[in-house]
TrEMBL record:
The chain crosses the membrane at residues 25-43, 55-73, 534-552, 572-588, 628-651, 663-680, 692-714. This is Cellulose synthase-like protein. The active site is at residues 140, 426. Keywords: Cell wall biogenesis/degradation, Glycosyltransferase, Membrane, Transferase, Transmembrane, Transmembrane helix. Its main location: membrane. It comes from Arachis hypogaea. GO terms for cellular component: endomembrane system; membrane. UDP-alpha-D-glucose binds at residues 111, 140. GO terms for biological process: cell wall organization; cellulose biosynthetic process. It is a multi-pass membrane protein.
Length: 715
């Protein structure tokens, strides 16, 4: 609980602990069954004879599953959440601090400007003093279209922001507010004055959308303020300052960063977050406040398993009860001084003495005198910043700091700012802060703080999970490995286990794929990997307990049974398809054979007015293309179908040495895998984008035939 040192002062926030007793019991039962299964395999190994290979492989896979489940139990054991009291903030603080708002975008095609515009407008309309907010848009794509859209949006903001605050509009993103499904648009106010303003604002927004849409279809005239874009290239262009670099312009003590698609859904979210960050006890404890991700365009029953509801409730809540929730790259409030490398118990005066040394400051923050001065003020925790009176000088200094070469030879990306070295820089940055001893807090409000868009098809979903898997595994195999953070830093042991769980996603591809292949292998070779006689009750009970446990978690969070199955299915598909390529990608990078590039996730345009989101993409059907990411899954499916056909027609060879062969257990497991890959099975018979391409099928058939051939020699 964040309690002030003053005895009569009420806390700005409380930490509420939750006990999921049934969840603990079920998780413990699953762990006990996993350990029993491992013990059974160890004591039965000498009796396996010619079945030792599948038995040993099953043992290795189940050992990994046991370790993974142990990290999950440790993470989920003591869940918590914070309850903030914004109304107390105003009585405790004489003047609210400034907050810098950062919006990041990288590609105007994959991330349409109208999405970024809505996010920016929602931020500008926050219920917070306007003179205390500064919004910055970072465009890695160097797009004149994005700048044009923002220039036009700034004009509309002069109408939109006052309208929102005058009528206490709850939905501050225009495209959501004017959606025909939004009852807020006209229900609270029926006065002639309101309706007149509402119509004017709606016309203004439609005009804004029309101008941006027209600019998308034709080239923007690169004259006047857009002239600087006439000679630019995506990966090679001079620094362009149309927004301002915050360290030199405003230097607010707190920073909110959001992805371009994450608009504000709760206009009071800044006050909620500041309740945590401004509590007297949290100044030397809490580095950042993370708000959960939720999505306005999620398809019914989550067919692609990407809405992450239960992960935020159980894993996110669980890790919040240890050293703090992960930083997930968006919807997060940071302390600037922590981003500048400050440790929880660092002595500010010593830090300033270090900054006084020319060589030291150049190594840490670079050669800009203006920026070093602003950094010193941020580290001291000053709420105000002495700005350069000459705007031209500030812009020149900002261009120097924003240049790509400025950070060379400095601590940027290593000890200062967002961390480099992984495409999962968000997790790495949070891990670095936790390793220094900082905590973090989650901020769950009603209504939810931010809403964004999620992947609408399987192709985008696979690419996203492959990128996440690669970046996370790269952290695990680096000097920033959470194990080192516990041994040499201040990362708590259970927090270390929580980070191991997330950074080893791609490693799971190996045991999960091997385990999925075991039923087919055993049926084809007439061997077995499951216990016989009464021993088979252990894996059977394990399967039942796991399904019941996960189902109860989904039902408790208000999700449907269909949603549970879709997520269960997608967790297997993800592990055996994109994460395989994540594992191979990092392996090739560590061997210095091939590096990988950052892939921007496609953001869909806001759903058109009157369009039922459940009908988008024909209800969430799988889409396939010629990408290699669909080859492993297609191969696994073909192998299971081959094994089932062999079993049905009795084409199995005789069990060697007169021993027992595959049985009912292996048959059930093979059918179970086919059920997971039902979207792939349907894709074999569909055409167009919903069908698996012939080239992918041919590659998978070749791999399946090779597997069957080799299986005859490895038993």
């Amino acid at each position: 609980m964040g309690i002030s040192e003053e005895s009569n002062t009420e806390p700005l926030y409380e930490k509420i602990w939750v006990k999921y007793t049934l969840s603990r019991v079920m998780d413990s039962i699953i762990l006990i069954l996993l350990v029993l299964l491992l013990c059974y395999r160890v004591f039965s190994y000498d009796d396996m004879n010619h079945h030792s290979y599948p038995w040993f492989l099953a043992f290795m896979c189940e050992s990994w599953f046991t370790f993974t489940w142990l990290t999950i139990i440790s993470t989920k054991w003591n869940p918590s959440y914070t309850k903030s009291y914004p109304h107390r903030l105003f009585s405790r603080v004489a003047e609210l601090p400034s907050v810098d708002l950062f919006v990041t975008t990288a590609d105007p095609v994959l991330e349409p400007p109208i999405i970024t515009v809505n996010t920016v407008l929602s931020l500008l309309a926050l219920d917070y003093p306007s003179n205390k907010l500064s919004c910055y848009v970072s465009d890695d794509g160097c797009s004149p279209l994005n700048l044009y859209a923002l220039v036009e949006a700034s004009k509309f903001a002069k109408l939109w922001v006052p309208f929102c605050k005058k009528y206490n509009v709850k939905t501050r993103a225009p495209f959501r507010y004017f959606d025909s499904n939004n009852n807020e648009a006209t229900a609270p106010n029926n006065s002639p004055e309101f309706m007149q303003e509402w119509l004017a604002i709606k016309d203004g927004y439609e005009h804004l959308c029309s101008k941006i849409q027209n600019a998308t279809k034709k080239s923007i005239m690169l004259d006047q303020e857009f002239h600087v874009f006439s000679t630019t290239q995506l990966n090679n262009h001079p620094t362009i300052i149309k927004t301002r670099v915050s360290g030199l312009m405003t230097n607010a003590p707190y920073i909110l960063n959001v992805d371009c698609d994450m608009h504000v859904n709760n206009p009071e979210i800044v006050q909620h977050a500041l309740c945590v960050l401004m509590d007297p006890n949290s100044d030397k404890e809490v580095a950042f406040v993370q708000c959960p991700q939720q999505f306005y365009d999620g398809l019914k029953d989550d067919p692609f398993g990407n809405q992450l509801v239960t992960i935020f409730v159980y894993i996110g809540g669980g890790v919040s009860g240890i050293q703090g929730i992960y930083y997930v790259g968006t919807n997060c409030f940071h302390r600037r001084k922590v981003l500048y490398g400050l440790s929880p118990h660092h002595h500010i005066q010593n830090g300033n003495k270090d900054l006084g040394k020319s060589s030291k400051k150049d190594i840490i923050f670079g050669s800009s005198e203006e920026f070093v001065e602003s950094a010193a003020q941020a580290l001291e925790g000053k709420k105000t910043f002495t700005q350069n009176a000459n705007l031209c000088n500030s812009l020149e200094a900002a261009k120097e700091v924003a240049a790509s070469g400025y950070e060379h030879g400095t601590d940027w990306g290593n000890k200062v700012g967002w961390m480099y070295g992984s495409s999962a820089e968000d997790i790495l940055t949070g891990l670095t802060m936790h390793t220094k001893g900082w905590r973090s807090e989650s901020c769950v409000t009603d209504p939810i703080a931010f809403m964004g868009c999620t992947a609408q098809d399987s192709v985008v979903q696979m690419a996203q999970y492959q990128r996440w898997g690669s970046g996370l595994l790269e952290i695990f195999f680096s000097k920033n490995c959470p194990i080192f953070g516990t041994i040499f830093g201040k990362l708590q042991f259970r927090q270390c286990l929580a980070y191991i769980w997330v950074t080893t996603w791609a490693l799971r591809s190996v045991p999960e794929t091997c385990y999925a292949l075991l039923p087919a292998y055993c049926i084809i070779t007439n061997s077995y990997f499951l216990p016989k006689d009464l021993g088979v009750l252990i894996p059977a009970a394990l399967l039942v307990a796991f399904n019941i446990s996960t189902l109860l978690e989904y039902l408790k969070t208000g999700l449907s049974m269909r949603s549970w199955w879709n997520n269960l299915r997608m967790s297997r598909i993800t592990a055996m398809n994109p994460w395989i390529f994540s594992f191979v990608t990092i392996l090739l990078k560590k061997l210095r054979i091939h590096d990988y590039a950052f892939v921007v996730t496609k953001k869909e345009l806001p759903i058109n007015e009157g369009l039922d989101k459940n009908n988008v993409n024909a209800g969430g059907r799988f889409i396939f293309n010629k990408s290699l990411v669909f080859v492993p899954g297609t191969t696994i499916l073909l192998l299971q179908l081959t094994a089932l056909i062999i079993n049905f027609f009795g084409w199995q060879p005789k069990a060697r040495s007169g021993g027992q062969g595959s049985g009912f257990g292996e048959l059930i497991c093979s059918i179970y895998v086919v059920l997971f890959y039902l979207p792939f099975l349907k894709g074999l018979f569909r055409k167009g984008k919903y069908g698996i391409p012939l080239s992918t099928i041919c590659k998978s058939m070749g791999l399946a035939l090779l597997f069957v051939h080799l299986s005859m020699f490895i038993v």
